[in-house]
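Notes from the 1:1 (GR / supervisor)

We went over the backlog. Supervisor wanted to see one worked example end to end before approving the batch request, so GR pasted a single chain during the call. The sequence is below; no edits were made to it. Supervisor asked that the structure be written out right there so they could see what the output format looks like.
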Amino acid sequence: MKLPLPITKPFSLARSIAFLRSFPPCRGDYVLADDAITAAVSIGGVAYRFKITEATVEVPDDAPAQALVARAAHFLGTEDDVTPLYRAAEGDPPFRAVVERLHGLHHVRFLTLPEIAVYCVMMQRTPIAIAARLKRRFVERFGRRVDGLIAFPEMAELVALDADAIADAIQHRPKANAIAGVVRGVAAIGETFLRTAPYAEARDALLAIAGVGPFSAAAILLRGLGRMDELPAMHWFEDDARAIYGRRFDARAVIARYGAHIGYWSFYVKTGAPRVTASSTRRLSA
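Structure output shown during the call:
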């Protein structure tokens, strides 16, 4: 059956698809067409396949329909209001150019909290291509298959895994040990608290878990749960920001301008900087 996808405009599914095509950690997780994304998620021990189009979510007749629609909306950030970001960009010409390129892009998250809880360990001090391979090995061993896709394990399933099983799957003992501890810690905090608590409280709860540092905590809150209200450390984004702003980049001015939308600013900067660099390279070689 097809159900409406809740959307706050402007929204462009094509921009979301383009982002996923270029995002190595999730490569192979979805079926990407020019006008649709097909994904799979486990709910209550059952894997469901669902298809997102510009305005609808298509789900199996026997599926928990509203839960899948909510998951699809969270995944693509479709209910986020990007207009305050765009208004702030009107007085910021370098960033406004990025907004024009990415107009309608909402913040694409990892599909579930369990997925980012595992991946935040895999990416620590590891090149993105290698971390993506580790994640693929993990999901192929422990995920639940449905119609050609694999749904990431649910949190209760992750908590039940021991480090030996994880190490056998990913062939990386130190990361296996860390993953086993991190998922237990994240599960003990709970998704509701991490979504709704004041940002500093959620961050500090994550930092109390062995194996979770500032970068991993930020990844869980920003890239996993869509907590866009704060940016834990500007220096993680400065190289990309300088590709856009050049020598004019002023971190304090950016933070003051974008305020509660600084997380969205960082997402657009990370997504847009490679395009700016590629465009500059083409001009120089022409």
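Supervisor's comment: The radius of gyration is 19 Å.
Batch request approved.
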